[in-house]
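Hey,

Quick one before I head out. I ran the complex with fe (ii) ion overnight. Inputs first:
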Amino acid sequence: MGVTASAPERKEGSPQVYKLAVISDIHANRTALESVMEVIDGLEVDEIICLGDIIGKGAFPGETAEICRRRCSFTLLGNHEDFFLKDPAVDYYRWARKELSPDQLDWIRSLPLYQDRLISGRRMRFCHASPRDVHHRVYPREPDENKLKYFLPVNAGDESPDVLCYGDVHCAYMQGLGGERLLLNAGSVGNPLDLPQAVFLLIRGLFQSSRKAPYSFEFIRVPYDIEKEIRLTLASGIPERGRDIYIQELRQGAHGKRWSYYS
Ligand SMILES: [Fe+2]
């Protein structure tokens, strides 16, 4: 677990600068994921990766799992996948199990905790909540010393990352933490809690290169048809428990129980 996933092959004549799209926290929102994938397709990226929480809350776990399984070079385990695997008695997870094929279930069981990429001479580590634990939540407002623990090696002999990119809190942000360390949150495609718009992260740089070279991070906001997804959700067989809070979150782009994860 945690080894670098096999790099996709470069296309002949492809540009020097590599484009990596990072999606996270889809939460079974099909309309949002399809809208984001349409934008990503227009950008002709070299690779798409997913930081987990493919399922949970929304009405289309089978569809979003399938899109991520087919389109992403790797998908990481999220806390909702972990809950789903360990706590099958919860109404939503019991329902979701029937929406997933045996192949999709096997795939979810196989998801790793973290993966690395070397881009423009920076080791970039991708995880859902922390590289060690999908339930270790780090809010944007937390003190820097808590965030710096993210950058410690996970296993003996591991290298520390220069850049750590996570999901989980559904708020897109970037923060420098001293030296060359950068912490990024990729935000959420299907359950954003900062704005009522999907978001993903686009990284540009030299791929699998130890040469220090320019690189960039760009948060791309994707307005999508929220009311369509709500209509589809209400017409689906999704359990009622938790459904209305989820719908409120889609409309407001804020957590159902508190105003913002930022403050
Ligand atoms: Fe999530």
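The radius of gyration is 18 Å.

Talk tomorrow,
K.
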